[in-house]
Design brief:
By secondary structure, the chain is of the alpha/beta class. It contains 4 helices and 7 strands; from the N terminus they run βββαβαβαββα. The mean pLDDT is about 90.
Length: about 150
């Protein structure tokens, strides 16, 4: 729940390395569960590019967890979307133990925003609400500019 430390897990990255969620402590992290077959997921990833570019240097990071069991399709989708942040996938699709751990099912996109200690700040927000929350954390502003 909100305020709890997010459960840690290991995931294989698109580069073939193993990454732990806890390795991102010290940064504000968006944990983004998505599918390359989901139009809303793709739209969110496109909109996140502005936030990542603006706030990455200030300590904002993103870990995308793909809900996809076709490795080739996943890798092609990530490349096509040109997302410069962390990309992970256990290639188990909707049967991923990480989805079970977070009680998400295959309801994507689903996001959790974590503070620098790995505690859950928000979860399951709409795209606009999530973008406003990220902006607020780094600027104190609660408005969403028309260009974002």
């Amino acid at each position: 729940g909100i305020g709890a430390v997010a459960p840690d897990f290991s995931i294989i990255t698109i580069k073939g390395d193993t990454m732990q969620l806890s390795s991102l402590r010290g940064k504000t992290v968006l944990l983004n569960f998505w599918s390359p077959r989901c139009e809303d997921c793709i739209a969110l990833n496109e909109r996140l590019k502005v936030r990542y570019e603006k706030y990455g240097p200030m300590g904002f990071d993103i870990l995308n967890i793909a809900v996809e069991d076709n490795e080739e399709f996943w890798k092609k989708s990530v490349k096509a979307l040109n997302m410069p942040w962390h990309q992970g996938n256990d290639l188990k699709g909707p049967n991923s133990p990480i989805l079970s751990m977070y009680k998400i099912g295959d309801n994507v996109p689903y996001t959790l925003l974590l503070d620098k200690e790995g505690r859950i700040i928000t979860k399951g927000l709409s795209q606009d609400s999530l973008l406003v929350q990220i902006r607020y954390l780094f600027t104190g502003s609660v408005s969403l500019p028309k260009t974002e």
